[in-house]
Specification:
disordered N terminus
Length: 444
Amino acid sequence: MFAHSHGDAMYWTAGFALVAMAVAFAVIMALGKKFNQKIPLAFTLFVAVGVSAVATGFNPLRHLFEGPTWYIYINLVIFCGMIFLTTMKAAGNLDCIAYDILTKFRTQPAVVLVLVMALLFFPGMVTGVGTAAILSTGMVAVVILRVCGIPNVKIGAILAVVTTIGSAAPPVNLPAIIIASGINMPYEGFDRILWALTLPTGLFSMFWLGWKDYRVPSVEAIEEALPKPERINAIMPYVPLLVVVAIMVCIRAFPGRFPDIVTPMVFMVGSVVTLFTGKRFNYVNACREAIGGGVFSTVALIFVIGAVVQVTTLTGAKGLLVLAAMVIGATAPALMYGAMAITLPLLGGVLTQLGTAVILGIPFELAMISKNPVAFVAGLSMLCYFAQLVPPSALGGYFARDLAGETEYMPMLKKCIVPSLVTIAFTVIELVFADQFAAVFVPF
């Protein structure tokens, strides 16, 4: 298997590139720790992958800046999705939705929990970033759950797990997009298989963490926690959301007849509609708020991921990882699935879900290319997303902890264990039987 016309030099080069990248990454992290500086992960990865190219005798300049261009559209979707969510919040529409949920369904815990799940799913669905939900609809969900008697530690766990699963839901799943682009596969046909993975696991997580402690709140408690918001009429807070959904449905239902204005423009249309559906706000300031902070860091990381894909392909490092995965898959398939379930979330604790999608997700998919690629990539992306809960990065977990008012992360993480393990186990089953799932949930 290892015989090649170029001899063993290519394997030494690829291996040295991986080692150089890992050493450079570790050195930068150590320097940041020594001088008490929080160095952005995007910068660390960018420098490390550049060092790996130089160390193996390649000029990385063109590749470091050419790779990110493939991810401009993804970042436009994230930015525009966050602008839409932030304008909804600024207009008071999210407060109106939360008030309606509590006042109309407070005596029906199952309905309340499902609607809260939908609130936590939607931002991740349209941006592919779990922290987008925590930063936008997360506060609304916290108010609802707290009024219903759910303790803070479980509220934090709900935010962390449900937003993680929701960010894997269609239409935007960033690890799936990254893995698909890494194997030159279009990001098409993922909707049904991703719903099959995210809906049952999201419902299980929501009810496992929220059902036992739910208490029917009084009207007085609701109005104390969430004063009756101002609104033009009953339907107006929902109009921007309905407009966005209607445009997306029409684009897919009437291809060629309804203009496809692309997803970023759909969200921008929705954000403009919010100007006429709630209280007055400064649109420019809302847009500035939307594209700052954690979302900007995510976008920067996605651009760097493009450079990582390009340079690891150039040096042969990606090919070496693929070859190693193929050897493991051929000799011990069970070990391969176990490795996926463990390494994708754990490595993502260092590299985030996007970094682990590149470094391991692409090689795992290429090693199992005989299985339906849509179903298999969907499963891999689900495992990648659970990196959002794993320290030291734990992007979703730490944001959820802070928003829920908790001071320690480990008690909250313990509450996440059961729903996380159930979701990972279900995902591994989907990976093992990817072809059978594809026969039902993949349209081609």
